UniProtKB/TrEMBL annotation, chain A:
Domain of life (superkingdom): Eukaryota
Role, per record: Complex I functions in the transfer of electrons from NADH to the respiratory chain. Accessory subunit of the mitochondrial membrane respiratory chain NADH dehydrogenase (Complex I), that is believed not to be involved in catalysis.
Bilayer topology term: Single-pass membrane protein
Organism of origin: Triangularia setosa
Classification via InterPro entries: GRIM-19 (IPR009346)
Entry protein name: NADH dehydrogenase [ubiquinone] 1 alpha subcomplex subunit 13
Transmembrane segments: 31-50
PANTHER family: NADH DEHYDROGENASE [UBIQUINONE] 1 ALPHA SUBCOMPLEX SUBUNIT 13, NADH DEHYDROGENASE UBIQUINONE 1 ALPHA SUBCOMPLEX SUBUNIT 13
Family from the record: Belongs to the complex I NDUFA13 subunit family.
GO cellular component: mitochondrial inner membrane; respiratory chain complex I
Pfam families: GRIM-19
Chief location category: mitochondrion
Sorted UniProt keywords: Electron transport, Membrane, Mitochondrion, Mitochondrion inner membrane, Respiratory chain, Transmembrane, Transmembrane helix, Transport
TrEMBL record, chain B:
Source organism per UniProt: Podospora anserina (strain S / ATCC MYA-4624 / DSM 980 / FGSC 10383)
Family annotation (PROSITE patterns): CHCH
Keyword Mitochondrion: yes
Name of this protein: NADH-ubiquinone oxidoreductase
One Gene Ontology biological process: mitochondrial electron transport, NADH to ubiquinone
Record family assignment: Belongs to the complex I NDUFA8 subunit family.
Subcellular location: Mitochondrion inner membrane
GO cellular component: mitochondrial inner membrane
Function, in words: Accessory subunit of the mitochondrial membrane respiratory chain NADH dehydrogenase (Complex I), that is believed not to be involved in catalysis. Complex I functions in the transfer of electrons from NADH to the respiratory chain. The immediate electron acceptor for the enzyme is believed to be ubiquinone.
InterPro entries: CHCH (IPR010625), NDUFA8 (IPR016680)
Main location: mitochondrion
PANTHER family on file: NADH DEHYDROGENASE [UBIQUINONE] 1 ALPHA SUBCOMPLEX SUBUNIT 8, NADH-UBIQUINONE OXIDOREDUCTASE
């Protein structure tokens, strides 16, 4: 019985390599260089932007630093005024000032007594 | 006794009692945030010593600074007030333009550079106060003197030039 055998002289070569000629604008080297260029440009812009933002943050911070003593002084005066008024009122109502905290430090008032039932 | 009865009725919970007469009175600054931000660097330029005194007093009197530092606080307030008054007197138009711009732009200083440069020029010419941001890195233009504000909504027009005081030009 005859069997299938390779043709005389063997099979032809199998084409397993692709044949894509690299030419024109989009050859691999150009693509890689273009991506690298885009990346460098983007990072440069980012660094410039971050530095500008840091500078502006510093400007804002210094503007605030220059204002803080003034704002704090005003706040302190108001606290002192209310504290002294409170003390005077307490003395008038109770006859003496009780020491509320076991410390000589000034404690900012946390709570205010408000009436429970609102009447007319 | 408190000089005035507190209005602690059930709707109004405000204590209007003034400070006792033993503590001298001072007029408060009374400016809102945009004018204060606009004038911050001028306040800092003129009142640096008073501010430092006050902050030092607060530091060396922890817990009692509110009472011990009233005198320094009055000096700070008087000085800041004098700056605002002087700017109002000599540069009202530029001042108002700048803080209106700040008010309209979410207090973002970089949106208002042209107005700021005009204000800086007027204040430097009249009051000899200059805006200087401390700790500026070497060999970089201070951010408020850059012609190109990359975060601003609209680019700075080409005819608006940053104001650089002569003193810093020579140095």
């Amino acid at each position: 019985m005859p069997q299938d055998m390779p043709p005389v002289g063997g099979y032809g070569a199998v084409q397993y390599k692709r044949n894509l000629p690299a030419h024109g604008l989009f050859r691999p080297r150009n693509l890689i260089l273009a991506s690298a260029g885009l990346m460098v440009y983007g990072w440069y812009q980012l660094v410039v932007g971050v530095r500008e933002m840091n500078e502006m943050a510093r400007e804002k911070m210094w503007a605030r630093i220059h204002l803080i003593p003034m704002l704090q002084a005003e706040c302190d005066r108001d606290l002192v005024r209310r504290h002294l008024a409170d003390q005077a009122r307490e003395k008038e109502l109770l006859g003496e000032n009780f020491k509320v905290y076991n410390s000589d430090r000034y404690v900012r008032p946390t709570f205010a007594a408000v009436p429970q039932h609102v009447t007319k | 006794m408190a000089a005035r009865k507190p209005t602690f009725n059930q709707q109004i919970l405000i204590d209007p009692t003034p400070l006792p007469d033993s503590i001298p009175k001072v007029k408060e600054v009374g400016a809102s945030s945009a004018p204060l931000l606009s004038a911050a660097f001028f306040i800092g330029a003129r009142c640096k010593d008073y501010n430092d005194d006050y902050m030092q007093c607060k530091t060396v009197n922890p817990g009692k600074g509110e009472f011990e530092c009233l005198k320094e606080g009055r000096r700070v307030t008087r000085c800041a007030r004098s700056v605002i008054e002087d700017i109002n007197k000599s540069c009202l138009e530029q001042f108002r333009a700048h803080w209106t711009c700040l008010e309209n732009n979410n207090h973002q200083l970089w949106q208002c550079r042209p107005d700021e440069w005009k204000l800086n020029k007027c204040v430097f010419d009249n009051l000899k106060l200059e805006k200087v941001i401390p700790d500026q890195p070497k060999q970089s233009t201070p951010v408020h003197l850059r012609q190109k504000q990359i975060y601003a909504h609209s680019p700075v027009p080409a005819w608006e030039k940053p104001f650089i005081a002569e003193k810093s030009q020579s140095s």
